[in-house]
Write a structure and sequence with these properties.
The structure is a homodimer. By secondary structure, the first copy, chain A, is mainly alpha-helical. In chain A, about 65% of the residues lie in helices and about 5% in strands.
Chain lengths: ~120, ~120
Amino acid sequence: MPSEPDPLSATFAALADPTRRAILARLTKGEATVLELAAPFGISLPAVSKHLKVLQRAGLITQGRKAQWRPCQLSAGPLKDVDEWLERYRRFYEESFDRLDEYLQETLRESKETEHDDRS
Amino acid sequence: MPSEPDPLSATFAALADPTRRAILARLTKGEATVLELAAPFGISLPAVSKHLKVLQRAGLITQGRKAQWRPCQLSAGPLKDVDEWLERYRRFYEESFDRLDEYLQETLRESKETEHDDRS
């Protein structure tokens, strides 16, 4: 039997699905019931409930106790952990961006020089 | 047959494993061969190769063409997409932090007032 995943793995696994990400996006606008969450996706209530369970286990949503409605709320704590995990990788994609920027600056300078040469 | 996942789902799925995250962390220090990547984990080469394939399919690593060594390199582009995806959630965990900060400030103020009351 596979052991319980570590919290960060559970978060990433929960985010690896476009429907679950869309549910989180919907919850940024405020709490919503399972019915409200199911509506835009055209999927069955059991399918939505399954997605909600994955999100809940990862700590990304909480579900109220009010028997009939049980509205879901976003719980963004685990996303902060993702943000912190990203920290050590930032310089790698920021560097790539810097290199692109350098290249564009270089190209711009060269094209200006050419322009200048043409005039002289 | 399940369809190919969208790029962001593929990235999150690739990150949902502690060994694959450790491989990425190792590659922040520079390129490494499959043998070098396998060494610290005490897992078989085929198991490491499987992890590398998942990372490669998600665009998180690239593997050189030099037949014998084929060193792997970090490719951080997809992590930038994760960073951008996080953007709309940031205010939720930053707000939570602000609320904690407010609570601490409040507690501090109250404890100072108590101190003051004790003296007067």
